[in-house]
Amino acid sequence: MIEGIFMRATLIYGAGDVRVEDVADPVLREPTDAVVRVLRSCICGSDLWPYRSMPPADEGQRIGHEFLGVVDDTGSEVAGFTAGDLVVAPFVWADNTCDFCREGLQTSCRHGGQWGAPGVDGGQGEAARVPLAQGTLVKLPMGEDSALLPSLLTLSDVFSTGHHCAVKAGVGPRTTVTVIGDGAVGLCAVLAARRLGAERIVLMGHHKDRTDLGREFGATDVVAERGAEGVEKVRELTGGDGTHAVLECVGYREAVETALGVVRDGGTVSRVGAPQYTDVPMDFGTFFRNITLTGGVAPARAYIEELMPDVLDGVVEPGRVFDLTVDLDGVPDGYRAMAAREALKVLIQP
Ligand SMILES: [Zn+2]
């Protein structure tokens, strides 16, 4: 980063068109801002939605919402952080003090917002201005050469999202669980369900290398079949009943239909896959079975302090979902590799 002039960051111009360009170096604009030099960022499954469908635009849009880095500068109203601190940012910024934040719903913060919104930096660059830095950032107790950085980065989104999915479904020692989807979020949902004590975890996915990692994360059974055949298989494994909790980590209508097919009567379907559908088929049949539908966007900020100790102690290693590392110049190829399913999740080391 050349101080005060330009830095390099990722912009998306349309489907399949991601570029790394010079942009204005971030500076403090508000006394509540901090500037963070990015050490690690990554590409999210949700970044692939615009990568697949965004109409072409003349002006690029900043992208990326998961990052950790080193505090470079802080505004006069940012307490508790100084230059040199290693920090992680959750995938939305928030004051962490309003009524929603105090209820653990920082994604609904009255003053917060999203990375990459107009006037706000994205995470896939050399640095970022962090609005409401005191509420948004969480300090990490290690140096910038720590081998734990990839796992700590997952607190920003993917592991916190898997955890949220399991929490909303009420997963605990006495629940049986089905996880739908073997992407990074699905695998993190397996890890989270295991961490919360679930002993039976059925992972539905058909990419063997991914479901193998899912087994290492705690899946006890893998079902590769999809649709009605997959539902049948899960029911066979569970004495015909299905599981108490179903963690839907895909976002397609077919996955929701599968979820409703494999959930046990009285059970809960929790969804964190960004929905690519508008209707949920919950008819009289699901009503009669007392199925609960829950889930939604994960307030990662609410979980970071709770999940961090197990990452620091090596109890969980969610960073194992990263199977490709690129530098900033490699970001466009990282998008291509993830969209082509050649990579599970791409780590960016600017
Ligand atoms: Zn708030």
**Strand percent estimate:** 25-35%
DSSP strand tally: 18
Instruction: Write down the secondary-structure element order.
Output: EEEHEEEEHEEHEHHEHEHEHEHEHEHEHE
Ions, cofactors and other bound molecules: zinc ion
Q: Mind describing the biggest β-sheet?
A: 7 strands, mixed
**Helical proportion?**
25-40%
Shape: globular
Count of helical regions: 12
Could you list some keywords that capture this structure?
binds zinc ion, seven-stranded mixed sheet, 12 helices, six-stranded parallel sheet, 350 residues, 18 strands, alpha/beta, 27% helix
Topology:
Layout: E1 6-14, E2 17-24, E3 34-42, H1 48-53, E4 61-62, E5 67-74, E6 86-89, E7 92-93, H2 99-102, E8 113-114, E9 127-130, H3 133-136, E10 138-139, H4 149-153, H5 158-168, E11 176-180, H6 184-195, E12 200-204, H7 208-217, E13 221-223, H8 227-237, E14 243-248, H9 253-262, E15 263-271, H10 284-288, E16 292-295, H11 304-312, E17 324-326, H12 331-339, E18 346-348
Parallel strand pairs: 11-12, 11-14, 12-13, 14-15, 15-16, 17-18
Antiparallel strand pairs: 1-2, 1-4, 3-5, 3-9, 3-18, 5-6, 6-10, 7-8
Helix pairs in contact: 5-6, 6-7, 8-9
The structure holds zinc ion.
